[in-house]
Amino acid sequence: MMDAFPKSVPMLFLQFLIIATLNLGSSCYANIDVACLESEKRALLSFKQGLEDPSNRLSSWGVEDDCCEWAGVVCDNSTDHVRELHLQSPYDEEDYEIWSQYATSEKVKLGGEVNPSLLNLKHLSYLDLSQNDFGGIPIPSFLGSLPSLQYLNLSEAGFAGTVPHQLGNLSGLRSLNLKGLPYGDAQLDVENLDWLSGFLTLEHLDLRQVNLAKAPNWLQAVNKLPSLVELHLSYCELDRIPPLKHVNFKSLVVLDLSGNRFFSLIPRWIFSLSSLASLNLGSSNFEGQIPDGFWNLTSLKVLDVSSNDLNSLLPNSLFGLHSLVSLNLSAMNDIRFEGPIPSGLQNLTSLEELSLSGFGFNSSIPEWLYSLWHLEMLDLGYNQLNGVISSSIGNLTSLVILDLSRNDLEGGIPREAGNLCKLRRLILSGYSGIRSGGDISDLFRTLSGCISYSLEILKLTKSRISGHLTDQLGQFINLKVLFLDLNSISGPIPLSLGRCSSLLTLSLARNQLNGTLPESLGCLSKLKHLWISRNLFEGVVSEVHFANLTSLTIFDASGNQLILEVSPNWIPPFQLAEIELRSWYLGPQFPMWLHSQKGFSVLDLSCTGISDSIPSWFWNLSFSIQNLNLSHNQIKGKIPDILDGDYSMIYLGSNQFTGPLPRLSSNVTELDLSNNAFSGDIRHFICDGKDESNRLTILHLGENLLSGEIPDCWMNWTALRVIKLGNNHLSGTIPSSLGNLLQLQSLHLRNNSLSGEVPLSLQNCTELVTIDLGWNQLVGSIHTWLGRSLSNLKILGLRSNNFYGEIPSELCHFASLQILDLASNSFSGSIPRCFKNLTAMAIKSHSQDHGRYSNDWIFYSSNWRSFLENAFVVTKGRELQYNTLLPLVTSMDLSDNDIVVPKTRMIPKEIGNMELLESLDFSRNQLSGEIPPSMSALTFLSFLNVSNNNLSGQIPSSTQLQSQNASSFTGNSLCGPPLVENCSTGGATPDIGEGDEGGDSEVNWFFLTAAYGFVVGFWVIVSPILFKRSWRFAYFRFLDEMWHRICTCFGKP
């Protein structure tokens, strides 16, 4: 909750220093009757010529004759010299409303170069170029030659490289801010910090996000600054705090060492800084105990030690900081302070901000907490707090922010909370959040007091809320952010939504809302982000719905049955960055209104009934697209080469595209062109530009008309994790260069005409999870390296090839193997007895390390839960495809081979150890002996086939075996249910006899049959459905097949 802590304390100190000490700032100068000097005017114009000014911010420079009237220029009233240049970006990155419009903020940034003509401004004492974008150029070393400079701010201005030591020549400097960017290529570093030694008057030093790893003596260098008041060294890659014998910067008021990697104790000298008012040690990997004893922090008002690995109870010294205003103790790490909220915190009566999230507190909220009258921010999220929220919460009348998310609280929000007239942010999200009986209208009724006017942010994501949205929604006239997603809210959206005129962000996704979209939605002129995906909306959406949505940048309404009816010449009033309309009906023509959208980065129009071709203008305007999904339509035509633009993910599968494969930009990371009619060979696609490495991680070209050989030039595709080329007409051998793909996890080459042996180089692909080479003409034996090198393998499919030889015992090293299909080959020998070691078929596993998992799903896309792994299993003569249910499937198919051994119990007697097996096929081999009795322990087995072998003896008794079809045991010398052959009479039908004795026997047989029928009927039909996973799977398989066809149309899983 770092965003919840104000930055007001450091900024107040900074403003005080600048105004009181320097007496600078544009507010102090009105430039009345001031005319700038001609030499300085020329210097400014030369400086402007080197700048890039896309928004024409400096348009006044040169138009006005007096440069003291130019934007950002401040002159001295008495000398006419230029004293200050305020050229920072006008946008504040902390401003939520403005920075949600990221594209706009980028356009106003200055760039280019910093011209040395600034050296002619001899009296320049203030230079601010912060929040611009100078494109990674170095900080000009000549800035160290500005003799009068006292204030230099280059924070987040896009400078990169090593900070020039010449800045140390600015002996009069009082404020230096070189804060770097948090991400990107424009990163700053230092060789050392020795150049700081000349800053005897420096009061403010900000090196946040500047890499100081090469400056191990950083503390000694800073300790030489006797006037230092503020020190910001957060996220500087610091890994140690050197010992400090004597503290020289005793005037320090603000100290920020957050975001580093110290892995050490908190040094005690910090607690001797009596002037310290703000201390931030958060997220710095501090360990051990928080030092107790005498703390001389009598002036401390802000303390942040959140997100560290501190492992003790809170020290008593903390509870004596009576001047403390802001306290952040959020844990959010594995080590937690379990138990009740420490009662010593009630001594901190001046607290205005308190964050205790992630502690693991497992008590109720103590009553004394409601007596901290000054609290403005209270964060108790991500704990295990239980009980009810007291009505005393109404005493916290100063509250502005309240976060109770992810707890086990019951009873709902008391009605007294409705009188928290200053509350602006209320966060109740989480599966274990507020359980108020579930009705959204009850909650809105609670919030109908004065809080309905003050509330600006309301988050109720995953809060187990149901009921209908009513006109109560319209009471929140100042609400800016509303999250109601991932609940069970039903009914239509009320017309009163249009009264929420301040809304910037609205998320109603993944509920059960129905009906049509209200036209009042179009009244939300300030709305920027709208998520309504995966609901039950239906009906027509027209231009009226979007009439005033001029600020909209993100629109995700996927997974609804809506129809867009607009005129062919419609020009939307918005410019969207993300457009997601999956499963709407937009067709049959390609939507022409997209022509007006110039800067979108995400476009998902999958399953939208488009049967047109893609117009040429689309490829010309789509350079900014990063995620393109037009799959599951009937789009025709050819795809041009995709060599330019910012494409990252391209999903065009399940259409009617024809022609050769397009050449690909090296920037693309995911490509799905499957289930189309692309033809020709793939050599040009794989080998053109083979000297250029690319970033592709997913390649899906399956189910096309591709032919020819798979080329042997995969060396530069080293980022690939998924290759799917199945169901084509490819021939030749599997290329050995696939062995260069060390990150490969999924390889699907099934149903082609590949020949030859599996290349030995595949043993280098140690991350492989899935290999499917079925339905080809491959030959050879299974190499022993397969089991030794590919220990992560879960799915191995070699069905319908020409493999031969014995099944190697090395396959038993596949501890994660859950599907093994070796059917329809020419394997011989015995079934390895060590198959009992295939623990994924015997022991239920949970978390996995390979692929990206959610509930053990295997998915590979950077879009969470997208591009699921799939596998095929043949059962009962049908080939079924699994993806969403794949983690639940275990299957072994060795049918139609030449497996034989002369001894009995050819089937290993330990087969019963594989308790999670659901499908087992040993049919059409030469197995002999008996079915092992341990097979009756396979309680999850839903399909078994041992037909057409040489097995003999009695079929073991179990619900799973007796419930199989009799055809699963035919072609052997077996007896017992479900076969009609009775083992006690050698297969003959018993003689019932005649007369009284026979009559008694017949009556007994009737009752025995009835009793047997009842038992079998109950346990075979009712009990397994209720309690046995395998029987439920038969039903779920049907659902899985249906889901596979419609999941992309009605929301990804």
Automatic annotation (TrEMBL):
The keyword Glycoprotein applies. Pfam families: LRR_1, LRR_14, LRRNT_2. One of its GO terms (molecular function) is kinase activity. The chain crosses the membrane at residues 1005-1027. InterPro entries: Leu-rich_rpt (IPR001611), Leu-rich_rpt_typical-subtyp (IPR003591), LRR_dom_sf (IPR032675), LRR_N_plant-typ (IPR013210), LRR_R13L4/SHOC2-like (IPR055414), RLP23-like (IPR046956). One of its GO terms (cellular component) is plasma membrane. It is a single-pass type I membrane protein. It comes from the Eukaryota. This is LRR receptor-like serine/threonine-protein kinase. It comes from Actinidia chinensis var. chinensis.
